[in-house]
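Exercise 3.2. Students should predict the tertiary structure of the chain below and write it as structure tokens, then compare their answer with the key that follows.

Predict this chain's 3D structure.
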Amino acid sequence: MFGVVVILYKEGIPECVLLMQSIEELAARYPATKFVKIISTDCIPNYPDRNLPTLLVYNNGAVKGNYVGLHSFGRRCTPEGVALVLCQSDPVLNDGQRGNEQSREAVIEGVRKRFIEKVVLDHEEQEDDSTSD
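Answer key:
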């Protein structure tokens, strides 16, 4: 099972920079998943900038997800939020440890756990900020 995540982007678009940061962190965390970035108009002539960034998700050669813009990934577009979305349609994240169903479930559970930890940490930081005013 081979997962590929393609990001269509253009330089100078802040939303692309934000998503690219999350994708780079996920690429380091999931080395068996292939992450590819392509300048949108090099791939699709006249692709509208308003659709950027766009993530295309493939698994075993078939399209499993298509995410246009940042709204799919939550307000802050964190690596945890992006990973959670990538695990929804057909999980493509692979840690390279084992290629079986048990490994896949472990990856999904790890993504969920990191997402929850990030949300709790962000919430605690917001509370600390509001009490220190």
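Discussion points: The mean pLDDT is 80. Residues 3-131 form a domain with the Glutaredoxin fold (CATH 3.40.30.10).
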